[in-house]
């Protein structure tokens, strides 16, 4: 049996359901229908789902992990040379202690590097998407990041097609909205903890801003998800598995039919404080002009309208201010 299917949490079962994306991308109509049902059920019951056969090459993931580890090992002053003023952390490096959860003023115990959309110099969207900096001290960093970004985009697009079917929309509903979208690949480094944290954990409980997040397994544990029963469950992706969760934009669009899932990264036991943690999520965003007005069919007597109309760009701007990245 696939070791992923055997992954268990402390309660004797997986913390999150597991689905096989190839059932949707390469399967029969029956397979595709079953996948959509499994994915929808996972999002409604837990909000997080593990995915295997997602099409993101393991070698690419491993090589970008190595490159990211090399970057975060550089001297602080070298890393800070990649911190881009007035970019709200959307390209390049963000130093330790700058980001916090929206309900907290205590900074998370992390630093990170973000890679954004790639477009040609003559693309009409170029003013929206500044160049991604290359890290000259780490060979291959730029090309590996670009390759992984494109692989995540492809897999994320397939997952959104399944989500569109689940929502009763045209399968390709999201395609034009995410083509050249404002997605972000983030390499997050949680350094070793050297002293008793002052009311801070590696990442305080939060929800993601975007449509969906795709996350490859981290170098150490700590990720927890809050389930419908308000229990914190440990999430440890198996070999070759990525983890997907609903973000706030999809929650708004569906008028809370799909819920953005609360999660956090807790500090390890004191005996493991010396261990750093490296994590690589991909935040799948649409183009800025996407209308996040609640879908008509999701507004019902039982679920009245929860949100005023807003575009994805306006919402992103609002949230970046809330978490301290934009002033």
From TrEMBL:
Pfam families: 2OG-FeII_Oxy, DIOX_N. It comes from the Bacteria. InterPro entries: DIOX_N (IPR026992), IPNS-like_FE2OG_OXY (IPR044861), IPNS-like_sf (IPR027443), Oxoglu/Fe-dep_dioxygenase_dom (IPR005123). Residues 180-286 form the Fe2OG dioxygenase domain. Keywords: Iron, Metal-binding, Oxidoreductase. The keyword Oxidoreductase applies. GO terms for molecular function: metal ion binding; oxidoreductase activity. Belongs to the iron/ascorbate-dependent oxidoreductase family. This is Flavonol synthase. It comes from Portibacter lacus.
């Amino acid at each position: 049996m696939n070791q992923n299917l055997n992954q268990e949490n402390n309660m004797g079962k997986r913390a999150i359901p597991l689905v096989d994306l190839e059932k949707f991308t390469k399967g029969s109509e029956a397979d595709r229908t079953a996948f959509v049902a499994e994915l929808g059920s996972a999002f409604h019951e837990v909000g997080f789902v593990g995915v295997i056969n997602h099409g993101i090459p393991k070698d690419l993931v491993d090589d970008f992990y190595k490159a990211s580890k090399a970057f975060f090992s550089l001297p602080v002053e070298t890393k800070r040379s990649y911190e881009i003023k007035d970019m709200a952390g959307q390209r390049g490096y963000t130093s330790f202690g700058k980001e916090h959860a929206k309900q907290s003023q205590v900074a998370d115990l992390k630093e990170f590097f973000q890679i954004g959309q790639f477009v040609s110099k003559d693309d009409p969207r170029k003013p929206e998407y500044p160049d991604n900096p290359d890290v000259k001290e780490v060979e291959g960093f730029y090309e590996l990041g670009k390759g992984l970004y494109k692989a995540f985009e492809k897999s994320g697009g397939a997952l959104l097609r399944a989500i569109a079917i689940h929502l009763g929309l045209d399968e390709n509903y999201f395609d034009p909205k995410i083509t050249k979208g404002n997605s972000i690949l983030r390499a997050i480094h949680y350094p070793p903890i050297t002293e008793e944290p002052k009311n801070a954990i590696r990442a305080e409980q939060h929800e993601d801003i975007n449509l969906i997040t795709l996350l490859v397994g981290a170098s150490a544990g700590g990720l927890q998800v809050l389930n419908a029963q308000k229990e914190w469950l440990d999430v440890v992706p198996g070999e070759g598995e990525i983890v997907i969760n609903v973000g706030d934009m999809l929650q708004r669009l569906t008028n809370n039919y799909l819920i953005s899932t609360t999660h956090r990264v807790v500090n390890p036991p004191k005996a493991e404080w010396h261990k750093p943690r490296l994590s690589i999520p991909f935040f799948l965003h649409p183009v800025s002009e996407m209308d996040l007005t609640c879908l008509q069919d999701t507004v019902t007597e039982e679920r009245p309208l929860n949100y005023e109309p807003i575009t994805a760009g306006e919402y992103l701007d609002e949230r970046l201010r809330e978490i301290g990245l934009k002033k």
